[in-house]
């Protein structure tokens, strides 16, 4: 290699060091590699690497990038940032629009965004396109589907389920070589919360089904630009329809030559994951939205779309992320009714090192062994391990529906004791009123708070990379 080019690269690298920028991948396959490697040793990428897009790079960065391998990502390494322009930029293959499966739920899901939610839609007209599709009830149990349920107790007197209606909403649209997954969890109870969740999925899905395919996208930055537009569209529709507040998480699986990438964004606490059978692991795609070393307040979503005090979305924890995954992996999104119940301090298998006296314990437990104390980060790792154990197969072929069922069955079983205790208490105290009823409800909350599990709405949507 000519000395002039060698000097140019050396000067560029020195300038890189002085400006405290990071090269995302070491230079290789050029004659001056040995000369440059000492300078690159301290520039290893991290999960929150601030990597500029090609359009924003300085001339010296473009010279360096010419010699870099095209694959910047390490497989299953998460790259996350609140600004998607700071994420690595990957080339993607053309996205095909041939829809193979699509579903939204629970019930009719994103199809019903009428303001008067109590009436609901009894019959869907599939001759009219809604959010880019004619029919939102075409799941495929093998590779694209979702499920929702309520973990709340049934009132034995009225027969009604507490917390109705289910304020979650999910949507999935699987094309020939790509997929759009999203999930929303209306904050608190009621029809306004459900309306907000449905509007979020409707607005975001309509935007993506149009903008992802209207012109050829070439990079992951193009994909993130559409995801940002989808979040804005969701917020606009919620506000227009007078919904309340909701979380929103979006993941888009797209091809990159012979690789697979998943681009995600989260507002709130509805998490996204990848299950790798080959790696025998579950990875979280949305963990960049919070500090894993600090305990999260499960009562607060951390961010939300919808009607706030200043009529703007609360994007406090809005985070974008990208991960390279493999064919055969399962990408799944859940509301906190699932993810929180996998926390070992909620399931009763551990206690927080900060609040050991608040450990949960089943009333049927026969041992008095104190629970293991865990830090916030240990709780995170333990929840991923428990998810893997719930999913792990014995060699049989797994389907998207299997993933949904196994995770839901775990949280249903975990919370069963709480439901039984509440329903028994209601039966035994039927007819009480006033101060006596207030006392009963306070005692019931105290008892339930010591038992494993968290009652909530629980939803999941899953896609297998094909």
Automatic annotation (TrEMBL):
Subcellular location: Nucleus
Keywords recorded for this protein, A-Z: Nucleus
One GO process term, biological-process aspect: tRNA 5'-leader removal
Keyword flag Nucleus: yes
One GO cellular component term: ribonuclease MRP complex
InterPro entries noted in UniProt: Pop7/Rpp20, PP2C-like_domain, PPM-type-like_dom_sf, PPM-type_phosphatase-like_dom
Entry keyword Phosphoprotein: no
Residue stretches making up the PPM-type phosphatase domain: 161-342
Entries under Pfam families matching the protein: PP2C_2, Rpp20
Protein name, entry field: PPM-type phosphatase domain-containing protein
Source organism of the structure: Adineta steineri
């Amino acid at each position: 290699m000519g000395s002039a080019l060698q000097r140019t690269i050396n000067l560029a690298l020195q300038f890189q060091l002085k400006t405290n920028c990071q090269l995302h991948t070491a230079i290789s396959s050029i004659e001056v590699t040995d000369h440059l490697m000492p300078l690159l040793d301290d520039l290893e990428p991290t999960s929150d690497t601030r990597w500029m897009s090609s359009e924003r790079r300085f001339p010296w960065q473009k010279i360096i990038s010419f010699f870099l391998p095209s694959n910047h990502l390490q497989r299953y390494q998460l790259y996350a940032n609140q600004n998607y322009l700071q994420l690595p930029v990957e080339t993607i293959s053309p996205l095909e629009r041939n829809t193979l499966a699509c579903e939204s739920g629970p019930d009719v899901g994103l199809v019903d965004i009428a303001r008067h939610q109590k009436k609901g839609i009894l019959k869907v007209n599939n001759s009219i396109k809604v959010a880019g599709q004619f029919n939102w009830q075409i799941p495929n149990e093998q590779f694209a589907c979702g499920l929702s349920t309520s973990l709340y107790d049934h009132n034995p007197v009225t027969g009604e389920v507490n917390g109705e209606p289910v304020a979650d909403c999910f949507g999935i649209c699987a094309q020939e070589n790509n997929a759009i997954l999203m999930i929303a969890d209306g904050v608190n109870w009621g029809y306004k919360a459900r309306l907000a969740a449905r509007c979020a999925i409707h607005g975001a899905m309509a935007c993506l089904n149009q903008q992802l395919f209207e012109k050829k996208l070439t990079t992951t930055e193009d994909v993130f630009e559409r995801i940002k537009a989808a979040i804005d569209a969701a917020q606009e529709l919620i506000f227009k329809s007078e919904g309340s507040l909701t979380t929103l998480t979006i993941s888009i699986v797209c091809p990159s030559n012979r690789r697979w990438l998943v681009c995600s964004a989260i507002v709130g606490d509805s998490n996204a994951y990848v299950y790798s059978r080959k790696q025998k692991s579950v990875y979280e795609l949305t963990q960049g939205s919070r500090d894993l070393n600090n305990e999260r307040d499960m009562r607060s979503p951390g961010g939300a779309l919808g009607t706030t005090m200043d009529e703007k979305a609360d994007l406090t924890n809005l985070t974008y992320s990208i991960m390279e995954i493999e064919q055969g992996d399962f990408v799944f999104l859940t509301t906190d009714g699932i993810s929180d119940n996998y926390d070992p301090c909620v399931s009763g298998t551990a206690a927080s090192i900060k609040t050991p006296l608040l450990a949960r314990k089943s009333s049927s437990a026969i041992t008095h062994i104190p629970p293991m104390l865990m830090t916030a980060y240990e709780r995170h790792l333990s929840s991923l391990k428990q998810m893997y154990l719930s999913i792990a197969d014995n060699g049989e072929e797994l389907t998207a529906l299997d993933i949904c069922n196994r995770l839901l069955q775990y949280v249903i079983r975990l919370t069963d004791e709480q439901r039984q205790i509440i329903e028994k208490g209601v039966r035994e105290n039927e007819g009480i009123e006033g101060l006596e009823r207030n006392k009963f409800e306070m005692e019931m909350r105290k008892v339930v708070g010591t038992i494993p599990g968290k009652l909530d709405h629980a939803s999941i949507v899953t896609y297998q990379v094909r």
